[in-house]
Amino acid sequence: xLTHTRxxxxxxxxxxxxxxxxxxxxxVDTVGTGLWTPFSLIFFTHAQGIPLxxxxxxxxxxxxxxxxxxxxxGGLVDRHGPSLAILVxxxxxxxxFLLYPSTHSAWVVALLATxxxxxxxLFWTSSAPFLRDMATGRELDRLLATQSTLRIAGLGIGAAGxxxxxxxxxxxxxxxxxxxxxxxxxxxxxxxxxxxxxxxGGRTGGAxxxxxxxGWRVVVRDRPFLMLCAVQSLFxxxxxxxxxxxxxVSVTPLGGPLWLxxxxxxxxxxxxxLTQRPLVRAAERTTRMRGVLASAVPLVLSAVALAFxxxxxxxxxxxxxxxxxxxxxxxxxxxxTLLIAAATDAAPDDLRGRYNAVYQAAFGFANxxxxxxxxxxxxxxxxxxxxxxxxxxxxxxxxxxxxxxxxRPLPRR
Length: 413
Known about the structure:
Elements: H1 13-36, H2 40-47, H3 52-72, H4 74-80, H5 82-99, H6 106-132, H7 139-165, H8 169-200, H9 213-220, H10 223-244, H11 246-251, H12 260-283, H13 288-307, H14 317-346, H15 352-380, H16 382-400
Helix pairs in contact: 1-7, 1-8, 2-8, 3-6, 3-15, 4-5, 4-15, 5-6, 5-8, 6-15, 7-12, 7-14, 10-14, 10-15, 10-16, 12-14, 13-14, 13-16, 14-15, 15-16
Membrane topology: Multi-pass membrane protein
Pfam family, one: MFS_1
Transmembrane segments: 20-44, 56-77, 97-117, 148-168, 174-197, 225-246, 258-280, 292-311, 317-343, 355-377
């Protein structure tokens, strides 16, 4: 009788189905985010009549408050498991978008933004522990790279769709409602992924976690992990400059054509989507932290090239900028995936939520600081700003240090 065998390293069918459901939920989720992100300020100013300064201040205040709230929700993941936490995050993220179209007050926007960002941080705090339950060893790196690649695709699809809808106040309100619908749909898909976890014996609830301040004390005393968070913050600041400032810099002060900012975004996303998985897989031949060190090379080269961009011939500026964007995307895709995988494996099983919450807070606050820090440096000069980016990457290298073995879970009580 003929028998069929699975290829080496292939996931069992139910595990593969669980991963497929999770990644389908991720695509739907990020299509909604892509719908909303490019038009958020346009929505509040053009559709809801809120002055630009008030809308920007409200979103910033809500973002900072949401980061703080999101950090302390790590205990929810530890007590109840990542599955429940992800479902709660879908509800927290959908709710504000159902209410935004009837909101005309900046303080209400700030409150709803706090709820949304809290849910967003809860999702990212939960996602890596959920994937860890489906992976062994460095397979986690591949799953995280797949998640990132699909996220880029979803954001691009959503942004393209929003461009068709966002030409009127009614269209902008429809974008908000569609974003809420994508979170609900993603939640339904994720319920399927969580249900398959029970069939495979996967952990859907929390391990017996150290409760209250005891768990947090373990985190704050873990100096190697806190150093890893510091490294992540430095890399996030450096790579954030490529996302937030490079499109602006490509036109002013480098004097590139007006089509260049869009080309920068397309190039960065395309390079990351095409190269992240193969590069992360290649990095499995060495330690994660050595992979992070290697990813610093294209990041530094990108920053150095841009620091001298003002000296380039005007006709060469588009090629210089697009080449720098591609180099930066190579480094960003590798370092971000390897760092979050290292942070997840640094945590004991019963404290993964708290560990990932702290790690995500380090990433989030770096993103909050990026526009203010680099616009101030750009006001001095283009060369100073990009030299500072290179210095941030170089500063992170000695902090990376030798890798440590994954944390072992404590005996359950």
